[in-house]
Amino acid sequence: MSFAIRILLIAAMASFTVAAQEGMSRKQKAEEASKRSLEGLVTDANEQVVVGAVVKLKDMKTLSVRSFITKDDGKYHFYGLSSSNDYEVWADFTGMVSKPRTLSVYDSRKKPNLDLKLEKVEKKS
User: What is the b/e burial string over 4-15, where b = at least 16 CB atoms within 10 angstroms of the residue's CB?
Assistant: First the structure.
């Protein structure tokens, strides 16, 4: 193979590699742009923040569940959520549970806030 042909092949491979990397970074940017987060406050029936409540987030597409334990401020947060999936979120804490709330694909906010209010669970006889 002549020297000129080798140079042309190397240049072609290099430009293909750069184009592939740019394409990947565009895809990654698009995926990152479609991500959103969810946060909120967990309170009890007396409107007091609840420390140590377990907040669960269920991806309604994959059925995977993530959890977060509230800190001193009673807040929870989940990051890196897909904007193309629905999510259900609820909290529980020592005999109390919140009603499930839904984060829908139709909610276009990047950082929605869904507060959760714990209620006593009645024992069934």
Answer: eeeeeeeeeeee
Q: Which of 103, 118, 98, 117 is nearest to 37 (CA)?
A: 103
> Are the CB atoms for 56 and 90 separated by under 8 Å?
yes
What does pTM read for this prediction?
0.73
Distance CA 14, CA 52 (A): 54
Task: Tell which CATH classification among 1.10.340.30, 3.40.630.30, 3.30.70.3270, 2.60.40.1120 matches the domain 35-120.
Answer: 2.60.40.1120
* pLDDT on residue 12: 62
* Residue 35, strand partner residues: 82
Please state the separation of Cα 29 from the chain's center in Å: 16
Domain ranges of the chain: 1-33, 35-120
Tens digits of residue pLDDT in 14-55: 666 555 555 656 666 665 667 999 999 999 999 999 999 999
